[in-house]
Write a structure and sequence with these properties.
Layout lengths: L1 E3 L5 H8 L11 H4 L8 H9 L5 H4 L11 E6 L5 E6 L5 E7 L4 H8 L7 E7 L4 E8 L1 E4 L6 E7 L2 E6 L2 E2 L5 H11 L3 E9 L2 E8 L1
Antiparallel strand pairs: 1-4, 2-6, 3-4, 3-5, 5-6, 7-12, 8-9, 8-11, 9-10, 11-12
């Protein structure tokens, strides 16, 4: 996973990624971060709660792969495939990539139809042409442990899981988002993007 700051030169990016610039993360932070899960966490979230009496929680959260808010094209870029997230400040967070595609042209193509934040999947189709699909996302700031939080509120009460394990604690920002979208019964899935930035999906139950 890497950040790409738009307008950044190649040398600046290489220095930052080598942790040689002044903006590098806390020493050892990357070593403590677990490797990303290969399975879409939203799909795993749905599968998990569609079994063992949890169907209600996953019922309102269709896999994001089924929805696209923009489909555009880009041309004459290096690389073959890339997945990235455009954050609200327009910085780009690369999650997976094959090759080293320039991200600005892909983001600019998407932003003819969407504004950040959004998630992109881009794949080379021919020697020149890339297909680029994007979906709007919601990003929230949240101080919490773990990398995934699943919160459900029903008439039976509130249930919370952090990284798949039952957990206790208060998440007022997730409750606020859930109540805003679902009233008294809702499901919230939060996945850490970076530091205190989380991608959040909310569904009424």
């Amino acid at each position: 996973m890497r950040f790409f700051r738009r307008g950044e030169t190649l040398n600046e990016r290489l220095l930052r990624e080598a942790e040689l610039d002044d903006r590098r993360a806390e020493p050892g932070a990357e070593a403590r971060r677990p490797p990303p899960e290969p399975l879409d966490p939203v799909l795993r979230f749905r599968q998990q709660f569609d079994s063992v009496g949890g169907a209600l929680l996953g019922a309102g959260l269709p896999p994001r792969a089924r929805r696209r808010d923009a489909v555009v094209t880009a041309e004459e870029l290096a690389g073959n495939e890339v997945d990235f997230v455009a954050l609200p400040d327009r910085s780009l967070l690369v999650e997976q990539e094959e090759g080293d595609a320039a991200l600005d042209p892909l983001a600019q193509a998407v932003e003819t139809e969407l504004t950040p934040p959004y998630r992109v999947h881009a794949v080379r189709q021919t020697d020149r042409l890339w297909a680029v699909s994007a979906v709007r996302i919601e990003v929230a700031r949240l101080e919490a442990d773990g990398d995934e939080i699943e919160l459900t509120q029903t008439s039976d009460g509130q249930a919370v899981r952090v990284d798949g394990m039952p957990a206790f604690g208060s998440f007022p920002e997730l409750v606020r988002l859930g109540e805003g979208a679902g009233g008294s019964a809702y499901a919230v899935h939060a996945e850490r993007l970076d530091a205190d930035l989380w991608e959040v999906r909310v569904a009424a139950l």
